[in-house]
What does this fold into?
Amino acid sequence: MKPLLLCLLCAPSLLRAAEPTALIEPTLGSLTITQFVSAPYPHPSRADGHKYKEEMFPAAKHYSDSSVGIFIPKNFHSTGRVDVVVHFHGWRNNVTNVFKQFQLAEQLVESGRNAVLVVPQGPRDAADSSDGKLEDADGFKKFIGELTSFLQRERVAGDAPVTMGNIILSAHSGGYKVTAAIVDRGGVSERVREVWLFDALYGGTENFLAWSDKYGGRFVDIYTDNG
It folds into this structure.
């Protein structure tokens, strides 16, 4: 049985840092883990950390990492327009572990889709659904602008200017909250063509429905009994 992300990627509609070879096979493509100013954290909302039930998550350990994982498949080709899949992880996770745990790069390659995969670091290894700057008004627009500049420097389109194409938002578990904020006030809702939720419809339903109605976006919610 194919992983769910791969099934959606195959469906019709659409590191130089951190030792990338330890995360993916180099033959799959290029994985970069870099730092973005527009990444979710640090953010004033978690300047004093976060408490969930009786567990405290200090800011220095859980809300200071501005890492963004960016995977460009080996056979990616573009004349300037770049489609991206932005994936938001769930509770108690981090960018490097997400790539290993869910084999995201492998799934994208196997799907054959011509897109770039992006995984921002949310609350690092914390029980928290918030995503700092990406929940702010136009926060995702700034993130996409910084991503476009990165892809331009990486010359993913050769000498042609990079233009952001279609955007797919993918979220697991607690990643629902930032996804709902992005389609509501992220600043590029018209670019978001699909939203995929994996055990992640814990709220924000009105945002998703309003976005889908207004822009004709494809909304997919896949869940288990407890999701």
Observations:
- The first strand starts at residue 29 and ends at 35.
- The first helix runs from residue 4 to 10.
- Confidence is low (pLDDT under 50) at residues 12-19.
